[in-house]
Every structure is written in structure tokens, then in C-alpha cells.
Hints:
By secondary structure, the chain is α/β, with parallel strands linked by helices.
Amino acid sequence: MLKFTYVKMSLVDSILNIFLGDKGKKDIKEVSPIVDLILKCEDEIKDISNDDLRSITASFKSEIEELKKPFNSEIDGIKEIINNSDNIEENENNYKKIEKWEQAYLDKLDEYLNSILPKAFAVVKETTKRFTENTEIIVKANDNDEKLSTSRSYVTLKKENSIWSNSWDAAGKSIIWDMIHYDVQLIGGIALHNGKIAEMQTGEGKTLVATLPVYLNALSGNGVHVITVNDYLAKRDCAWMAPIFEFHGLSVDCIDHYKPHSQERKNAYLSDITYGTNNEFGFDYLRDNMAHKNEDRVQRQHSYAIVDEVDSVLIDDARTPLIISGPIPQGGNHEFNELKPKISSLVQIQRQLVTKILSESKKLYQDGNIEEGSFKLLQSFRGLPKNKALIKFLSEDGVKQSLLKTENFYMQDNNREMPKVDADLYFTIDEKNNQIELTDKGIEHLSSDVNDTNFFVLPDISIEIANVEKKGLEIEKEAEEKEKLYAEFSEKSERIHTLNQLLKAYTLFEKDVEYVVMDNKVKIVDEQTGRIMDGRRYSDGLHQAIEAKENVKIEDATQTFATITLQNYFRMYRKLSGMTGTAVTEAGEFLNIYDLDVMVIPTNKPIVRDDRNDLIYKTKREKYNAVISNVIDLTQKGRPVLIGTTSVEISELLSRMLTRQNVKHNVLNAKLHKKEADVVAEAGKAGIVTIATNMAGRGTDIKISDEIKDNGGLAIIGTERHDSRRVDRQLRGRAGRQGDPGSSQFYVSLEDNLMRLFGSERVSKMMDKMGHKEGEVIQHSMMTKTIERAQKKVEENNFGIRKRLLEYDDVMNLQRTVIYKRRKNALDFNRLKVDIANMIYETVDSIFSNSKENNDFKSFEFDLIRYFSVTSPISKDDFEKGDEIKCIEKTYQLVLEYYEKKNKENATKVFPIVKNVYENPQNKFERIVVPFTDGKKTMNIVTNLKDAYESDGKELINDFEKNISLAIIDDSWKTHLRKMDELKQAVQLAVHEQKDPLVIYKFEAKELFFSMIDQLNKDILTFLFKGSLPSQNPNEIREDRQTRRREKYNTSKEEVLNSDELANRNRQVGSNVSSNQSVVETVVRETRKIGRNERVKIKNIQSGETKELKFKQAEPLLQTGNWNIIEN
């Protein structure tokens, strides 16, 4: 009978698990019989020899080969038919048959893998047991052993045997294998094989769990991809787990060891098991879809992937696009430098104005005029919400509450009264919605030296066009006037966009927080880990605005050549699974977007960690002082301490504070992966203090000794609540591994970003009511719940953002799929011929339909000559009265026959030239460049000289079709990507017309894509039909020595910021602003709950009047913000 222990949850998690708990039990009940079968198989094979254990894997592979034979036989037969057939329509149907047979084989393979799962898992577990119990494993040497012995230190040959050691190097660290799967890990392995997310707590061995489904699915030879969040983990896990797989003849490699496009990386993908980072897998997919030869492609099919830290990859990083780009020609014209002095001046004037208004507000408060003072306070808050003096004033009793009350008043009726507040300001900042808007006063100031009051005002284009139409001008003159209006509108749009980006750069983005300036370049800093993200740029001109602000060179804008988000990359896998310690809080999103179910895996031992209620202070200063005091107390008790922070800056602040108190400590962040292992190894020792960003704690397993366990185990201290509950859970999970004792305590202040923007209103009101004094703290489960509710608000908001962004990207993904399939087909000349035939039919259909709509036979004739160089096979009478389908079919057959005839003639014409070059003994060419022209432009076609010669010129014609198709597809796709970016920006204005931008985007994108495909077909066909050699001179042909342009491409992970993401960054900026300020030393106290009928004494903060009455009677007065409890 299997016994499992479930993870101890917080109260909120417990409430959720009223539902999820039942699901969890059901999940375990479903897989328990399979676990029993695995244990039974394990018992059956425990006494067999090492050679017999290895032979089981060989038999699995042999059975899969037998399973594959009938399917391969059918597919090979169809391919033979295709190669010997010139019937385009028949070939197209045969390609569809191949796809069906391939799918049928994969379905049958799934059934087989499910049937052998118990025995396969037992084999892996028995292998780990033998590596644990023996320093050496001796087996009869085979070819694989001989090959590995030359490159693997843990495999040696001795006569006819090979000796496998149980110790090896894993990413620079020597390890001795000592892990055997627990029963609960078998459950995790089953979940992963079934395409689910396995949530496993820290110390439960996720890396070991993955060996089970990885081995099983790698048996097919289709390739298993294990994805990690960074290259250190990819290389470490590959080296760590490889011997277990290699012992059974499976090949293992890591793509991050090799350069892109290299043969070594291609070989890594050909391995049975391939480790790598999410970014590199994504970029290789994009590079493959820019390749000009099949040999340049490195990836195989996307069969099965396991994503480690799946919440980080598929939630946090999922919406960030991977981009391959290059500079836009003549893209160096910017208005940033011209507008920068104006914006700098405007921000400075606003800062002075806000300082003055805040001073007036303070005076009015002191005089007891709360209403006027709150109005002025709201003005200063709308002007510069991150002003240090403002944040300091807001921490005083009753001030924050008064501000919120005033803000709610002016925001009612859709902000109807808000213009009164904004009238004196030059621009306003809506911090929560991250909107920056110029006021009339600001526009007037900016326009003062340009003699045009409308210089920064966008005209209503529809009204202006209507005015032009009313003039009754001649058609040519009217068109000219409209064109002028559109040009002016475009110019002003660009100017206003530049202005807004500069305002954001000056007010929302802080140097050394969001970005740093290094080597005269602006580089983005990852706020979570502190890592500098080279090559990553903010989109939409924001990066250029920051460059202008910092007086560094404004880099040229870039053009996207290929792009995909990680969301859509990972959805391409036939089977996807993941593992993490924190997935339940995002279970709805995983199911909704990726169709991934989350399965909570029981822990091997009960969790006894003490998760305490949050300690809430009023200011950050008091909070950090309390943290340091607690750390000193814990270290004196001999307990190791892990301090979790939300940013590198806070880590450095706490490090300085600990240094002043002479407390030895280590700082861990994601900048130094190599040092991470050493820091983590020290982190579990007595009295050791480790500071880490919450995200840097991912993948770290802190082990403690029995002595530490007796002292209370590892102590976790969180210095701030993160926006996401799962990040806090990730930090808590560092303690309490495998039944170890431990504790977790979060410290919170009302100045923290989460509290300040989402959760402090209620807490602030309560603290003011209770009259908290300096030096006191709140700790109560109710307060912890309030904070978690604030986190949930943020999570729900972020899910909505990601879901909506995915809907935008889904449109692009459908288009990308079509284009990349066309591109892939172009690399196979048989498939390309089918595509060309389809292009001919679609273009004939388009030409006929357009001409028929206008009943214009002359246009039909003209277009046939224009695109295909053929005359119409149907008469005018047939065109006007005949059956449309028959007319299109007749025209299509004529055009196709003409094209096939022309290709044969071209092959005949080029062969003598190819023959002359090939037979010339002075030419030692392998690949040659042959120029072709359509009469307007010339394109160079690269082909293999020997193949062209041996095929009588046919190979050159095939390469001509391929090269032309690829060149025009790539060019059209790049242009289309730019238009789609512009469309995405343009449709956002639909909000002002009470329309949904997404609906408009989908419709316009569809029309744009169909138009692009139609033009793409025509461009390809025009060149193919008219293309020929410009001359018969063999000297025109030269050797292909050009380096691929791909070496000039830039790969980047662009930071796409929508309003909510920017708001999140603003909160992080606010954190650093407030952490460096001189704050009011007001501290709150811990207090008991006041009964509703209990008598209290309250005081009016304006008049000083005091009253004594029941708390339920005092409550309405306290809620006005003008009264405080002074005694109870």
C-alpha cells in the first residue's frame, strides 16, 4: 500500500484545495496502479545481470523498429511514386497520405510507450540503484562503450568488458551518484510522460524525476528536448544525468555547448536526448526558417519536451518575443535629439511646480484645511507620484487615506472632475494605468517657440478629409490635398509618439535600476536577477528615447526578419510537459493557454516548516532594521538564514547593513552562475547568512546537517511580498526539504510596491484608526490574507494581459505557420513544384475573379500576358457567359503546360553553358553562381555544378525555382512583419471610438495577409515565367564564395512593454526611489482587536476635539479620515 504526504499549504491555498485537493486525490488514485506495476517490474529485474538489464533497452528499440516497418514501407512506396510522377495533383494528394501515415505511426508509438512504461521506469530506477550501490559497473563492451570510452572519463575498457564508474564531473563539480527514485518520484515521472505539469517541492528531485519520461520517450529516436532557464543548468543537468542514459545506449548532448548553424549543434539535435535553454531552442527554430538549404537546418520535428521551471518559462517569459533582426536601411533619422531639450525642460518645470504644490498642501494640512490640502496633494500625486518628499508625506497618519478619498471623488463619473485637478500641471501621470498625457498647458509650453499652437496636436483626420471633400475640387487636386493631409498626420503621429516615449524615459525609467549605461550603450537590467541583458532593446522607440536621455549614440531602428514568442514555440511540440515547485496558483493559465494540466506530486516526507504570518511595518526603514535584528538573533542560535529580496538593489542594501553589524554573509544572484554552487553549498551551515533575489533561488537545493535540524533548520526571511504568490512560495520552498525543520517569515511595509499600489488602502485605514505609534508592528492572519488578496489581483490582471497578448500573437502564429510551411516546401523541389502549381491556380482564380467582377475581358487578357506571358485560351463570349470553374480550369491547364514546357527549354538552353564550365579543366568549382533576369532585375542562383551537369541542366532549373521562391518569400515576409507591427500600434486608437482593437486587428490582419499572399504568388510566378539567362557567355558564371548574410543577423529577446507591464516596472522603480529616501520614523504597534461595543476615545485631527463613544458609533467618523483613535 502506497503512503504519500501532501504539502502543507497556507490558508488561502487550503481554501483553493477544497477543490484542488479532490482533484489531487483523484490524480493519485489514477496513477497508483501504474506505480504498483513499476514496483512489481522492479522486483522482477532486481536480480538480473548488468548485461541483461542493458538488453531490455535493446529489446525496446528493436520492438519500436518492428512497429515502424509497415508504416515506413507505406511511406517509402508513396515517396517512390512522387519521385517518378509529373502529375502535380496526384503528388499533392500523396503528400497528404504521407502525413496521415506519419501521424498514424506516432499514435501507435504512443500506445506502445504507454504499454512498456512500468518496465521502462523500473529499468531506470534499477540503473540508478546499481550506480548508487556500486562504485563500478562491469558489462560486456559494445560499440557504444568503445566510442564513449574515448571521450568519457567514467567509461573505461578492459579486455572484452567496459567499466562504468559511479563518479564523474558535472559542470565543473565532481559528483558521486547517490540518488534512487522515491515512489512519489515515479508519480512525477508518470505525470510528465502523460503531458502534464508536475508540481514538486524543493528537495524532491525534479531533475531525477525527469530521467524516467526522458528515457522512455527517447527510445523512439524522435528526440526528447529538456529545456532549462539558463545555460549553466542545461550544461550541468546534461553532464549530471548523461551516464544513466548512455549506459543504455542512448545519446545525450547539450546545444548550448556549440555555436548556431554548426555541425556540432546539428549533431546535438540528432541525439536521442537534447538539453538546452529555451532561448536557444527558439532561436534555432527561427534560424532554420531562414535557411537556404535543408542541410543548414539543425532541428528535427518537435516531438516531446520537458520544461524545467515551467512557470518561469511559460508564464514569466512566454510573451517576450524572440527576434532575429537587422538594421533598416537609412533608418538613422530621429526626432529624439531635437525634442529632448523640450522634454527635459518640461519635466524640470513640472518638478518645480509639484514641489511648490506639495509645500502648499502641507501648509493647508497644518492649518486644518484638509479638503484643500487633499486637492493640492492629489495634484502633486498626479504630477510626479514617485516624488520622494511626496512619498514621505504620504506615510504620515491620515494623509494617504485623505488622498485616496479625494482621488475617488474626482475619478467618479469616468474622471469627469479630473480636469480641474490637472489644469495647473504640464502633464499627468496615471501611475496604476501607466498613462502619461500632456495637458493644454504642457502643449502650450512646448509650442511656444515653434509659432504653431497645433504643432503637438494630432488632427482629426476624418473631419479634415470631410472638409476637403466639401470644397468641390477637381479629382486630381482633391487627391493631392488628401495625400498632403495624410502626410501631415503621419508626421505629427511620429512626433507625438517620440514625445511620449521621451516623457516615459524621463519619468518612468531610472538609470541603474531598469537599465545601465555601459560602453556608451544603454543595456536593460533584469530587475529580478540583476542580469544585464545584452542585445535586448525596448521596443517601439522607447530604447532610442532612453539613449537620447543619456546622451549616448541613438542606434538605428531594426527590421524584424523572423520572430516568435515562447508561448507559440512551445505549443508546436506534439507533447509538452513541465516541472516546477510553484504551478498550482497558475493552473488555470496553463490549462487555458497550453492545455497543460497541473498535478501536485505528494512529498516523500511530511513538511514541518513553520510558515508564519507576515510582519507589517509602516516604513521600509523600520522593516529592514527588524530584518537585520532577526538575522542576528537567528545566527546566534546557530541557524543558517536565507534572505530573499525582490531586486539586486535591496540585496546590496541589506548587505551593507549586515556589514555594519559585522555579520558575515554571502550574496547570491543570477549574474554569477559558477559561484552559485559554492554559495549554495555554504548556505546550509550554522550561522551562515545568504542574501538572494527570489528568482535567483530557483533550482537551488540547500541541504542542512543533523545539528542544524536540531537548532530549528533553515530560516527563510522574505523582505517583501512579490507581485506573484508563486514567487513567494518558491522562496519558502528553500526550507523544509525532505521533512527538514525550518521557518519562513515575510516582512512587509506600507511603502512596498505591492502594498502601496494595490493593498495599502485598507491596511492604511486600519492602522490610522488604531493610532499606531512609532516602533510597533502588526502581525495577524487577517493582514496576511489582505496581502495575498492584493497578490491575487495582480495575478489575475497579468493573466488577462498574457491571454490578450496571446490572442494578438495567435494571429501572427497562423500566418507564420503558412509562410514557414511554404518556405520549408521550397527546400524540397518536389513539394515546391506542387506549391508552384497551387500558386498558378490561385493566381489564375484571382485574375479571373477580379476581371469577372468588373466584366472586363481586356483586363483578364492583359493580366495573363503580364504574369504568365500567355494569351487567353478562352473567348470573350466564354468569359462573359461560360462556366467560371471550367474557364479557370482551362486557363490553369494552359498556363501549367506552358510553364513545364518553358522549364524544359530553359534546361536545354543552360546545359551547354554548364557543360562548358564543368568540362573546363581550369575550373575546380563545386558550387556556382548563375545570373537570371526577368528583364527588370537580376538574381543570382546558386547550384551544385556537378549535379547540374549530370542532370542535363534540370538541377539548375530546380535551384532557380527554389532560390527565387525563397528570396521573394523572405522579402515579402519581412515587409509584412513591419506592416503587422504598424497595424498593431494603429488599432490601439480604436479604443477612443469605443471599439475593440483586437477585433479590428484580426480583421485587418487577415486582409493584409491575403493581400500579401496574392502579391507574393504573383511576384514569384512573374519571375519564374519570365526569368532566363541574360547571356550565353560561360564567363558570366562564377564560383560561389559569398558568406551567408545570416552572420550579420542580430538575435534578441525584445522587451515588449504594454501599459500593465510598464506599470509593474514603475512599481519596481518606486521601490528603489522610496528605499533611498529619508523617511519619517513612524512605526506601528501590535494591538488587539477592538470590540464593536467597546468604548474608545477619538480625536479630530483638524479641531482637536475629543469624544468618547462605542467603537461601532466611532467607526463612521474614523472612515472620514478626520478622526483618529487616541485611546481605548
